[in-house]
Fold each of these.
Amino acid sequence: MNPSPERQSAHRPLRAVDIIIKKRDGQILSTEEINYFIKGYTTGEIPDYQASALLMAILLQGMTDQESTDLTMAMAYSGEVLDLSPIIGNAVDKHSTGGVGDKTTLVVEPLVAACGLKVAKMSGRGLGFSGGTLDKLESIPGYRVNLTQKEFLAQVARIGIVLSGQSADLAPADGKLYALRDVTGTVPSIPLIASSIMSKKIAAGAQTIVLDVKTGNGAFMQTMEDARKLAELMVSIGRLSGRKVVALLSDMNQPLGCAVGNALETAEAIQTLKGAGPRDFREHCLEAASYLLLSGGKVTTLEAARQMAEAALENGTAYEKFRLLVQAQGGDLRVVDDPSLLPQAACIRTVNALQAGWIAGIHARTIGETVILLGGGRAKKTDSIDYAVGVVVHIKVGDRIEAGQPLVTIHARSEVDIQLAEQQILSAISWSDRPTEALPLFYGVVQ
Ligand code: URA
């Protein structure tokens, strides 16, 4: 395409429209232009319609790594940036790009805190088919996620772990832009996702970030190619912004662990902290925890990190750290000690296999959507959720199943809901009459 006639003159003061045109025409934005736009949008001087146009231009034209880094830093510094260094030194944070049954934070954070790494984490809520840590924690009666900044800092200094919601003062530009992307079809852009995630981590004070980038039908990044691109871009943003970033590429073609649904996932995380829990989920947590311990300088090799993490699960210190966390944030400890006291659904039914064969697929996204249908997720940010409902998946891809063996247990509010969910879940399971391969947990590491 020919350069646009409306192209910006070298001497004209910056204007939002010129920045939009420049990106529309596939040119590279300068640091100054990106800073100008993000500042103007945060203060309200640049309206939503111009921000929407720029977002669409970025989605269609892409951004260089330097532009993505500039966008990240402009969003991170659009509000307060926490300085955790007096309390933590090198603050290590973990972030998952989201998936179905992903309750990893509930296990990994107390686990690494039990190994002496201070954890100050701000998590999010579920939206769409993917769950959120805050909703899972709130299934424990009394647990407070809305700590003030003072409480947040005091708690990590006192007990070495805090897990709360993101304060509105951190990266406000991302908060505004994310809401706009949601309604303008501009969520699935790798530079926009990478800068959105990284800006929040940097604003929350992270110096070292371990990312769990999920790929598969239950993840934002459906293909390995896109997941790797996202991971590489976030690692590059880390390098250009002076943060250390390690990205694990992990599978999301079937739910992680067995439980999907807030209270059910919290119960499964507690079981895992007590040394039990599903094998894939325990293994996933140990691997993520090992990278956190290594990146946080607790050990010098991955093998030593792994040993340290396994010991904390086995000797009960990780579980004790979780109890301490729940107690500090006002949660009911009786529920942690006896997860059967978590919210329970009125109707619970196990669906058994009608046939024998090998499991070829369990469509994670469909399982996540079924939990929303049952009332366990939100269609809009303002929707309230039912903590008790969900699905426990008893099978994994690659399993040999005999007729009559349990496939899933549905936890619902009514018989009608059970029937609806049953149809949907059965459609998510695919069978083979020949042996099928189990899925890997991880596909690689980008660092
Ligand atoms: N998570 C985020 O924080 N931002 C995105 O854009 C996508 C996932």
Note: The two ends are 37 Å apart (CA to CA).
Amino acid sequence: MAAIPTCKCLIAGQWTDARAERAEDVFNPSTGEVIAKVPLCGEADVDRAAKAGLAAFDKWSETPAVERARVMFRYRDLLLKHTDEIAKIISREHGKTFGEARASMQRGIEMVEFACGLPSLLVGETIENLATNVDCETVRHPLGVVAGITPFNFPAMVPLWMYPPAIVCGNCFILKPSERVPLSAMRMGELLLESGLPEGVFSIVHGGKDCVNALLTHPDIRAISFVGSTNVAKHVYTTGTAHGKRVQANGGAKNHVIIMPDADMESVVEGLKHAAFGCAGERCMAGSLAVPVGNVADEVVKQLAVAAGKMRVGRTDTGATDIDMGPVITRQHMERVRGYVEVAEREKASIALDGRKVHVADAPNGFFVGPTIIDNVRPESPLVKDEIFGPVLSVARVNSLDEALALGKRCEFGNGAVIFTQSGRSAREFKHRFNAGMIGVNIGVPAPMAWFPFTGWNASFFGDLHIQGREGMMFYTQQKMVMTRWPAPPSAGKREPGWKPH
Ligand code: NAD
């Protein structure tokens, strides 16, 4: 049997053993097998990475912005060349289908493309003659050493939301990938070094809670980007800011999908199937609560149950392209997700499709739950309120758009929300009034692409400046204001009337 490899940290341009004594298993969720060990780093490893970043910062921040961006042009080429290879790693360690893994790489590469063009966003502003002969300008400076902490559900894409823009802005970056899926991030780290990034500008440390806390409290780390569940996001925000850091922390979600009686049924069924069951429901923008309005409900549930029931659930570690849905991330998570079907049984909701019945013959130890639809859930049910983060779609029937909007107002989260309708009036009402930050009209998953911010609200986001787009660049830079006056020498006798030295 091949030995199980232990993940190395990337510090000062070298792959090195962690100082950590403890390690955790990384699983292949399709088979339940252990494929790697991930060290649980703490203060010692974080300090090594922060020192390496600090040592590299002066030179990197003085490197012209266009040269910093050129590293990203080379990185983009390498990521494109290695897309399939990295997609296979994602499928193996996370359980996305090959198609889903490739699509997530594409979204991540768009962030690199955004970072290639970042110098044009870094330009400052100037007013000449703000006061007599006084010019005023703003310029943007990098912060220093910054860190990113990422979740398991997009092993390549979410890290790419963070480090390409941070690095082109002139910062040094420490990535702490999810301990469940460290392998894709490490391969992408190798390619970043190959792109010619100087040593120390990008580091990787591993682990969970202790590693995160060491990052949040390290005096040399200036800012933290976080993506993960709401409770941890809250902890990261309060601890990071209490230690004087800038923090942007994306949290969990429960995204409502409102279906009006006039909606185009084919788009609804396709959109909902993709939104609820794509990536096995493990997406912060998954549509997890369908809210059909009026008499459209029976037809939506009936047609969706047929379409979702035909989805092929199977192992994703073989590179197979003929499956529609892979496993969820761990055995515990599979049990938690299945537990919600038991909640439905206890609450006497109607189970229109039961994912517990799915068996994958060639992977009996994999962490599988099939597409599940639970109809007639009550507004106060955990099926409406909790983020299940699996392939479970709850259906809460309502009688009007107003009732659907009121249900949205009671939601703790505020990541995304969608309406399917052919009425401009309903769409306008929804987009103006719904209590969430990312809105879709006849689009199942309104996740913004690199050029737009990821604008979660409420318990889906803690901070001021969101990830991606111009706000992402603003997060990774600080402004300096410069006032200038160049008086003519007194000997030239050209001082303007009333000139006084301030
Ligand atoms: P998680 O919160 O368990 O873990 C996220 C990160 O936090 C990991 O790197 C982990 O090591 C660390 N962590 C875990 N527990 C910690 C603790 N007690 N103290 C300090 N650090 C800790 O999230 P997950 O299960 O990996 O990912 C799924 C969650 O991420 C879902 O809630 C999903 O909605 C959310 N998510 C949000 C977005 C978004 O943009 N809003 C995007 C993707 C995922």
Note: Residues 149-153, 158, 176, 178-179, 208-209, 212, 227-229, 232, 235, 250-253, 284, 387, 389, 415, 454, 456, 460 surround nicotinamide-adenine-dinucleotide (CB under 6 Å).
